[in-house]
Amino acid sequence: MLKDRRIALIEDDEIMGASIEQRLRLEGAEVLWLKQMQRAIGALRTPRAPIDAVICDIRLPDGTGEELFVTLCRTVKPPPFLFITGQGGIDQAVRLLRGGAADYITKPFEMSRFLERLSQLILPLPGSCDNSLLGASPAARRIGDLVAQAARGERTVLIRGGPGTGKALVARRVHQLSDRSFAPFVQVDLARAAVLEELQTAASSVSEGTLFLNGLERLPAKAQDWLMGWLDSAPPARLILACGDDMNGAVLEGSFRPDLFYRMDQFEIPIPPLRDRPEDAVWLLHRLFASLNARREPPFRGISALADQAVLDHDWPLNGRELRTRLVQAMETAPGDLIFPSDLFPERQTAAGKPLLSLSETRDAAERAQILRALEQTRGQTAEAARLLRVSRTTLWEKMQKLGL
C-alpha cells in the first residue's frame, strides 16, 4: 500500500523521526522528513511532486501541528494528515479532526498499527490495479489468494460465510479472473419459491460460463435431485456454490443429500465474519463512503477517526450488509459534513440516558445473545451449538436453564 508513495514526515524528535523514516522506506515509500513548522509550510504548499499523506507531530519547535494544518488550509487543500500526539493532546487532535484532519494516533504506538492507520488514509494510485476484494487484513488477503487459485482451476468452488460477507462478490471475481470470463455468469438465489424452474432455465442459458448457486443449504429436495442429474450429464458450465456456516448441519440432518454434497469436487473458500477481522470493517466503510460520497452534492468532508474506532469496536452481526445500511442512513441524516459515531449508531444516543447494567447483568445479557445466536445457526441443535460456543453440552444446558432459554 505504501510502495512508491510520497510521505511527508513533520517530526523534530531525532529518534522517533529516524524510526518512522526507516520503516516507511522499508515499505517502499519516498519520505520527505522536515523538522520545523515553517519549512514544512513551504514544502507542502509547493511540493516538487504530489504528497500522498502527511505524518505530523502536534508539538514542533517553532509552532504546532495545528498551526501548520490551519495555515495550509487557508490557501490549499492539504493531503491527508495523520497527527501524532501524546495523551495530553487528544483534545487538540479531536479538534483537528473536526477541522478536516484525517486521523490521529497517540504515543506510544505499535508500528504495525501506525502503518495500518496511515495506509487507510491513502487513495489508490490513478490507473493502478487494486486487487483488494474484501479488505486489507491477512484474512482478506488469504481470500484473494484462494480466489486466484480457484480461477486458475476448473473444480467446483464452495464459498462459505454468513449473511453479508460478500459471497456473491467472491463468486463473480472467480469468474472474471478465469478463462470463462468471456461466457455468461448466471446467478440463482435458491431461497425462491420457483427455484427448480429458475435453476433449469439458468442451466440451459449458461453454456460454457459459470453457474452460481447462492444459498445451497436452502435447495429444495426436488431441485437437489435435478441438480444431481444435471451433474451426471457432464455439463460444459462451471459450478460455483455459496452456503452459510450451517451447511454441514443440513447434510447431517438429512435435509440436504449427502451424496450430492460430496459428489461435487469442491475447492473451498471460507469467508470469516467482520467481527473476526474488524480492520476490514473500517476498510469497507471508507470504500463504500468514497463511492456514495462521489454522487452526493455537497459531498461530506470525510469520516472522523472516532467513527472509525466505533466501527472497529462493533460486532457486525450482519456483516457488510449492516455496515452499508448504517452508512447510507448516516449520510442521509448527519447534521454536519463529517460522519461521527452517533451518525452510524444513533441507538447509542437513546441508550446513553439509561442506567448502566451491573457487570453481572451485562455478562448474562451477552451470554444470552451468543447462545441465541448459536441456537439459530444450528437450528436448535444444542450439541452443535455447544461446539460453536466451545463449552460442554452440560454447561450450555445449565446456562440455558439459568437464562430462561
Automatic annotation (TrEMBL):
GO BP annotation list: phosphorelay signal transduction system; regulation of DNA-templated transcription
Pfam families in alphabetical order: AAA_lid_14 (PF25601), HTH_8 (PF02954), Response_reg (PF00072), Sigma54_activ_2 (PF14532)
Residues modified to 4-aspartylphosphate: 57
Highest taxon of the lineage: Bacteria
Response regulatory domain mapped to chain residues: 6-122
Sigma-54 factor interaction domain mapped to chain residues: 133-332
Molecular function terms, GO-annotated: ATP binding; sequence-specific DNA binding
Keyword check for ATP-binding: yes
Keyword terms of this UniProt record: ATP-binding, Nucleotide-binding, Phosphoprotein, Transcription, Transcription regulation, Two-component regulatory system
Key word Phosphoprotein present: yes
Name of the protein described by the UniProt record: Sigma-54-dependent Fis family transcriptional regulator
Species of origin: Cereibacter changlensis
Lineage: Bacteria, Pseudomonadati, Pseudomonadota, Alphaproteobacteria, Rhodobacterales
